[in-house]
Amino acid sequence: MVGWTKQIELPTDQPAVSIKEQLTMWHVPRRIRGNFRIARRIYLNGEYQPTSTILKPHDVLLLHWLPTDFITPDSHYVPDDSQSLQILYENDDLLVVNKTKGVKTHPNSPGEDGTMMNFAQAYLIKQGKRAYMVHRLDGQTTGALIIAKVPYVVPMLNQLLHDKTIKRTYLAWVDGHLTQPTGTINLPIGEHPTNSRLRQINGINAKPAVTHWTKIKTVYQQTLVRLQLETGRTHQIRLHMAAIGHPLVGDDLYNPQSNYAGGLLLHSASVQLPIPFSNDIKSIGAPLPPSFPVNLK
Which parts of the sequence belong to the Pseudouridine synthase RsuA/RluA-like domain (predicted)? Predict the structure, then answer.
């Protein structure tokens, strides 16, 4: 049968919940749960069972997805093996890689290569898998980037991001002295009226955006901060820190007066990731690249 199959042996501490409840707890979308039930594409210990069946420890569930379950079932990124991936974590369904500075997350036009998704495609084709985008990092941002290897975990991971269950921590150098040790920025972000490359506080079609920051240390006229996102708007950290008078060092878009020649100093330092189809939560750190200084002069 064409599609993707996943076999899961339930843990020793499996709660006594129905198949339907377990799929919901795993964030399998409601529409796909319905497809499983209607087409009998879910098996318990080798046999089809109604989704009302109660699960027990060490039961074996087998799920089968079809291309029609997804809006984008196929991955068409051009494989590019010109750059190897630094793998921070990998299982059968996803990987977390350390994104390189100056490399885009994904191509913007058909046939384009040289992006992280192209490098991941070349790596995963050797496993018989494909690369599916979960979230993006700006081109100049380095660090932890989640990439799906199969389409069925993409909506699950998207829901975890939406629910803020996946926690992302960043490090950044900003201009100036922050007088408080911590703070929260709650400013909606929307489109810029005249420049499609930019975003704007309270811009067109603005959406809520929340960033929490913690001061780590100040060196001369710059401060190293740790940031956590509640939302994931384009340029959120860059725009939010600029809005409170502390733009990121090396930010050519929102801090054009910065004279730092090394480019944007923003690093996705870690992700706290609930692993799909399990109770595991992994904290995955991304080492600082040479381009991100421990101290600024």
Answer: 93-243
Q: How far apart are CA 87 and CA 64, in angstroms?
A: 28
DSSP secondary-structure letter at 152?
A: T
pLDDT at 226: 98
The DSSP call for residue 68 is G
**pLDDT tens, 172-190?**
999 999 999 999 999 999 9
Q: Residue 223: which residues within 8 A CB-CB, separation 6 or more?
A: 173, 174, 175, 176, 177, 178, 215, 216, 217, 246
What pTM, to 2 d.p., does this model score?
0.92
* Residues contacting residue 246 through CB under 8 Å, at least 6 positions apart: 174, 175, 176, 178, 223
Judge if 4-69 and 71-163 fold alike in CATH terms. Answer: no
Question: What is the dihedral angle through the alpha carbons of 144, 146, 147, 151, rounded to the nearest 10 degrees?
Answer: 180
In this predicted structure, what is the pLDDT of residue 116? 98
Any idea which architecture 71-163 has in CATH? 2-Layer Sandwich (3.30)
- 163 catalytic? Reply is no
User: Taking phi first (over 0 means left), then psi (-120 to 50 degrees means alpha), and beta for anything else, what does residue 142 get?
Assistant: beta
| CB of 32 closer than 8 Å to CB of 26 | no
Q: Which of 59, 138, 175, 251 is catalytic?
A: 138
pLDDT tens, position by position, 113-160: 999 999 999 999 999 999 999 999 999 999 999 999 999 999 999 999
Residue environment code for 50-74, b if the CB has 16+ CB neighbours within 10 A, otherwise e: ebeeebeeebebbbbbeeebbeebe
Residue located via tokens 């380095």 = 142
Structural fold of domain 167-268: Pseudouridine synthase (3.30.2350)
Q: Which residues of the chain have a pLDDT value below 70?
A: 1, 297
- Domain extents for the chain? 4-69, 71-163, 167-268
